[in-house]
Every structure is written in structure tokens, then in C-alpha cells.
Amino acid sequence: MTELGSPTLGAAFLPDWLNPAVFLNDPALAPWVVLIVCGIVFAETGLLVGFFLPGDSMLFTVGMLIATGTIHVPLWLFALCIFVCAFAGDQTGYVIGQKSGPAIFKKPDSRFFSQKNVEHAHNFFERFGGRAVILARFVPVVRTFVPVVAGVAKMNHKTFIFFNLIGAMLWGVGVTMLGYWLGQFAWIEDNIDLIFILIVFISVIPIGVELLKAFMSGKKNRTNSNGSLED
Q1: pTM for this structure?
Q2: What is the largest distance, in Å, between two alpha-carbon atoms of the chain?
């Protein structure tokens, strides 16, 4: 297999230490790949400072590298580890929000923290409710802050756990399995950056559908509330 170390488009925006196509091919890191990836997944989903980490592309790349034998880890073991870390990450974020409460919304901007990110996540949560816990998994930055916002909003913990389990499975295991399956095709390896962009595009489709439904519902309600527009 040729290395995935020559990104051309999407990964060009990332430094080498954040580009999965580069650091996952580093022989020095090979014995620690599982721990490194699990740590990144946990930090991105459970710690406020992890919003910039490349979760989607990393999971997809690992799936590809397992499929081609570059990473010698059983797929089921890696998927299990990712599922646990993704679930634990969101649970940690929920606890942070639950314990910190409104202080999260008053925290001043810093190099690694922006109130805009919290506000975007809050609006996302308000619009989609419990489903936001699942949908946010597929949206960079938002997936870091939505669990925190859910904790701040004191979302029922059992309900949060339910949605968290589904989200961890669909995102953590699903994206890895997709990379594993597609990694068996040479064309995918040669066009890895286009695939990363496609992943982002596909991941926002459910959100687009929900937004369209909300828009159509709001338009219908406005029409029905105006007697002059009714039949």
C-alpha cells in the first residue's frame, strides 16, 4: 500500500500533526495508534478544548488503514474502543455542563474557547432537542459543545444516555466501518481528500432535512394563521 501522506485538498488545511493521513502513517506512533485515536475521540467529544480535532477524517482513515493492513489491529477491537471513548466523551461533556451550569455561557473568549461555538451549539440543541445529541456527532465543533449544552439545560440523564449510545454507534463505529469498507478500493485511497469532503457533505444531510422540515412546518403554520391565505 502507498502511504496516505500526500494530501491535496481537504487535509491541506491541517498541520501534519493534525492530518490523519500523515500522523497515522508515522511508524514511531504505530504501537500507540489505538490509544492516540481513542484519546483524540474522547478529547473532541468530552473536553471543551478538543473542538479543533479531526474526528471524522481520522476515524475514516483508520478504517482504511486497518482494511489495507497498515494498522495491525482487529477491526472489532478498534470499533469497540472507539465506541466506548465516544460514549464516555459525551458523558463527560454532559457532566461538565451539568456541574458548571450557566458559567459556560459567561466564560470569556480565549485562544481555545469561543462563546460563538457555545452559542451555535445552544441554538443547534434548541432546534433539534434530543436528536441534537446524535446529529451533532457529525458536525465538527458542534459535537464538542452540544453535550455540554445538554448538561447546562439539565436534559434528562437517561434520555441523554439513550441518544448518546446511538450517536456513539453511528458516528464512532459507523465512520470507521465506512472507511474500512471503502478502503478496499484503490480509487478511494488515491482520492482521500475528496472523500473527506464527501463525508462532511453527507453528514450534514440529516441536518439539512430537519431544517427544511422545520422551515416548511413554520411556513404552513404562518399560512394557516392568516385567514386571507386559507382556501
Answers
A1: 0.71
A2: 71
Cell numbers at 174, concatenated: 459507523
Task: Work out whether the CA dihedral 223, 225, 228, 231 comes out positive or negative.
Answer: positive
Contacting residues for 58 by C-beta, under 8 A, at least 6 apart: 20, 24, 37, 40, 41
> Rounded to an integer, what distance in angstroms lies between the CA atom of residue 89 and that of residue 167?
11
Please list the rounded mean pLDDT of every run of 10 residues in the chain (231 residues): 42 54 66 86 84 78 84 91 95 89 66 63 73 84 85 87 95 91 72 65 60 61 55 43
The letter for the amino acid at 87 is F
In SS3 terms, the chain reads as CCCCCCCCCHHHHCCCCCCHHHHCCCHHHHHHHHHHHHHHHHHHHHCHHHCCCCHHHHHHHHHHHHHCCCCCCCHHHHHHHHHHHHHHHHHHHHHHHHHHCCHHHHCCCECCECHHHHHHHHHHHHHHHHHHHHHHHHCCCHHHHHHHHHHHCCCCHHHHHHHHHHHHHHHHHHHHHHHHHHCCCHHHHHCHHHHHHHHHHHHCHHHHHHHHHHHHHHHHHHHHHCHHHCC
Nearest to 92 by CA among 148, 51, 136, 174: 148
- Decide if 159 contacts 63 (C-beta within 8 A): no
